[in-house]
Amino acid sequence: MLMLTLLTVSQLGTLKHLDEIEWIDSIGEGGIAVMTLIWLLATLVTRPKGAVTNLLFFGLSAMHISMLLDFLDEFFIFSERYNWLSSLEAFPAVIGMILMSFAMYYWFHEQQVLNHLLQKKERFYRTHGLNDYITGLYKADYMKQHIEQELALLNSHSHGFCLALFDIKDFTRFNQQYGVIQANNLLFDIGQIMTLNLRSTDLACRFASDCFIVLFPNTSYQEAVHVVEQVTKMVSYHTPYNNKKVITGFSEIRWHCVEAAHTDSLDGLLAQLNNGLAQCKASIA
Ligand SMILES: Nc1nc2c(ncn2[C@@H]2O[C@H](COP(=O)(O)OP(=O)(O)OP(=O)(O)O)[C@@H](O)[C@H]2O)c(=O)[nH]1
């Protein structure tokens, strides 16, 4: 389409003299054409193949053709016979916008499915800066913001909330034996198993290195422990592979759970979790 547009314009039009060109207009219109091309390439690079991507691709392509015609219009002049080419320049953009509207509609449905999958990894808002790219979960800072909010709500809620800190046993040894990439895969797998076995209201984040933290809003200590035990059990069934061989002995996680009280602070709760987990590790080691 690009080649066809360039060829048609160059064959049917005549180049303007330099002093006839309006440079400010050309820079603005050229900038728009370049930006639509960048969006087009970004769409192809970042999105998976499928109907939404196809619609976005054709929509943006059509818009790019319009922008390109508009830009070339600054450099070429058309005789009476071919003046229709100038009049047509907005037409591809209209088709592009219609295609992109369909893309938005299907994207909305796609996003609903993704939102459902992300439910236990984020609550209320999305902030990419706090994402942990190894586990696909949010980082500790995201959790800290949520704990602060829950603490602020604690007085008006009839139920309190609980927090649990999890640590993978012998993760250093796993790193040494199977390498960082395998160890990163294990972190990802355990993060996924944890979120699969949480309730839709719970929130799991990566806390630090091989530690995960879970927030259980509106939950009593007994209820939280019940979910934690289920998560721990499911992680223990996980069998990672190394070159098709099963790796055993690295699917154990230790945990400590606390229930927040009205007098607690964020730092106080995190200290309770860290100390409790350290005691748990010491007692099992
Ligand atoms: N592959 C990988 N390793 C990490 C990452 N972050 C931290 N680590 C490693 O994780 C380990 C965490 O240390 P510990 O929690 O003391 O290790 P551990 O062997 O689980 O010790 P215990 O908890 O006492 O069983 C260290 O060896 C870190 O180098 C990461 O993002 N990827």
UniProtKB/TrEMBL annotation:
PROSITE patterns registered for this protein in UniProt: GGDEF
Catalytic activity: 2 GTP = 3',3'-c-di-GMP + 2 diphosphate
InterPro entries on file: Diguanylate_Cyclase, GGDEF_dom, Nucleotide_cyclase, Rev_trsase/Diguanyl_cyclase
EC assignment: 2.7.7.65
Domain GGDEF: from-to ranges: 159-285
Transmembrane segments: 26-45, 57-78, 90-108
Keywords carried by this UniProt record: Membrane, Transmembrane, Transmembrane helix
Signal peptide start and end residues: none
SUPFAM superfamilies (alphabetical): Nucleotide cyclase
Protein name, UniProt field: diguanylate cyclase
Organism of derivation: Pseudoalteromonas aurantia 208
Lineage of origin: Bacteria, Pseudomonadati, Pseudomonadota, Gammaproteobacteria, Alteromonadales
